[in-house]
Give the backbone structure.
Amino acid sequence: MSLEEKKQQIVEDFSVYDEWLDKYEYLIELGKSLEAFPEEKKTEERLIKGCQSRVWLDSEERDGRLYFTADSDAIITKGIISLLISVYSGSTKEEIAADDFGFVAEIGLKDNLSPTRANGLVSMIERIKEIAG
Amino acid sequence: MVEEIRKQFPALSAHVYGKPLVYLDNAATAMRPQSVVDTWSQSVLAGNANIHRAVHYLAGVATEAYEGARDCVQAFINASSREEIVFTSGATAAVNLVAFSFGEAFIGEGDEVIVSTAEHHSNIVPWQLLCERKKAVLKVLDIRENGTLAVEQLEKLLSQRTKIVAISNISNVLGLINPVREIAQICHAHGVPVLVDGAQGIVHEPVDVQALDCDFYVFSGHKLYAATGTGVLYGKRKWLDAMPPYMGGGEMIKSVSFAQTTFAPLPEKFEAGTQNFNGAPTLVPAIRFVQEARANVAVQAEQAAITEYVYTKLTEDERITLYGTSLEQKIPLFSFAVKGAHHEDLALIMDKMGVALRSGQMCAEPLMDRLGVTGLLRASFGPYNTLQEAEYFIKCLDKAINMLL
């Protein structure tokens, strides 16, 4: 799936849920199914600032494409970072750098999060952009 | 009836995400009654002029409202004179004022300041800054396992070099009433003055500064139903007189020349610059509200019922760890952790159920470290909260935990 297709998929998945609690259920499931992140990788450098909960993001470049792994001690945040990395893993640096991350607004994630959580989301996006930059 | 009280607070009838708002973040800031809003807008609309100096009509109205609020606060906390009431922008500003001015006058290299491990950052950081500036030492009074202050250790901490002890009346995390009178007695026996951070205390406890015999007592208006940006520093006259001004500028001077500036008498000496003359008068209706709520038997009974109900529910539940577990000292403020569920997830889910809670470190990182947690979830109730809301909170908490575990 291309980056555009993946984003479209997420927007469609989210559109099924009218209620915010259902969206959270979905994010919780995403968070729970995220691949285990090794404890030794939970370092200060991988920690994303600006979140009330702790979020770690790691990346690897293979064949010109970026692959992300992540973890968080809060499950909804883990769901959010899981959603972000599932979209952007496998893209080239150029693709990510050129992306406007507009789909996040489209699924209503940013507006409906608490201010600290929204800051956290912004910090996560910034970190992904930084890695691609 | 609690319903009568609720009617005075228009903000409480709000709906969030289509659900009735259950506001349980009162320890962060309280809602304002209509009387406070009216006084505030009245001041802006019909009494807006800078206080003290001008001779025109409006300046007189504004000055009277501002100084009237000072008299009201003096009576409320039973200070011995109105000059001992200094208006600040809040409790934080008041602690900073004392840390700076008291520090300038009385603290030098090698001297010691004592705070408790359960203090809000606002009652830690100003003292740290002072200690850095003066090469003084900050010492910490610990808590016991149940969260109460280890007062028995205070004697040992006090030394010849101790210059001041700063302690909260009620911790904003543990929700326990500290024995500040006893603490003041111990400190005074060593000749050491005591500052009491009353940000939470003034809201939940009748405060008589002369009976407590504390040297300083500080609080914010916004947690006491008054306007934001209002606050009070009470200080015994002997200290305030001996302390240099904190900020220089208008209002606080007697006369200014490049050769020498002399300062205004108390309390203006500590009120530099244009004061919050629109906000300060709201302390009057706010204090009236507090006094009415305290005298209202039904409201007090409801508060006691909420405290007992929530305390019991949280301590009975094996998934939950409540911090601050001394029921006889407990106010309706509950900070707790849920095993296996992050405080932020819980707060986020419960927000969507209409319940406003606080999650995180609550401006008390040293206490979080002491308790061995990265953060907690806090529910803090006000006199307008009902037992029904408390029951809804417990129901939502159970639902949220089940979603996460």
In short: The interface with chain A takes residues 17, 341-342, 344-345, 347-349, 351-353, 359-360, 374-375, 403-404 of chain B (CB under 8 Å). Chain B is about 40% helix and 15% strand.
